[in-house]
Design a protein that fits this description.
single chain, 196 residues, mainly alpha, 64% helix, globular
Amino acid sequence: MTESNQSESGNVAVSGEERAATSSNSPTDSSSGIGAADLMLGAAAGAVGVWVMDRVGWFMYSNEDPAALQQEYHARPGSVDVAHAAVQKVAMLMGHTRPPEQPNAAGIAVHYALGVLPGALYGVLRNRVPALRAGGGAAYGLALFAVMDETVAPLLGIASGPTSYPWQAHARGLIAHLVLGVTTETLLRVVNNRTL
């Protein structure tokens, strides 16, 4: 550290980059090295990210071409969204002959879990792997979109393959996930700046 980083009172001034780099040393569970605070804050930021993503997604959905919406509706397994399709699949595996209607509490919980769980992981990793924060969280949102929406959901059979959906559904999903990523990162950055 250079002399210019030290004030006349002897206190050390820390830049935002130095704070972000050292924030991986936030309260940790000494046995695992995982920051419990980072985990919880990431989960909370992920939940808020899902809420904001939904507002943007629903706005776009309500202004979308009706023919594209019809194509998307027919492409969806069971004509329901991914979270509710997952709930229906589990219900059927458990022997329930009639899947729960959409929306339902379990589907909404799964939907939020798909933002909370990756958000918790992101909260832990973002200061340890700074590249994850690229684009102010946009890289995180892009990764969620590519991995979850375009790859894992079709492989699990809770979404059809990407070519079954109109381009508008992909654009809406991409934009909504970018919003989720930027919201999650912004909230975590604000909290980090206030607590360091």
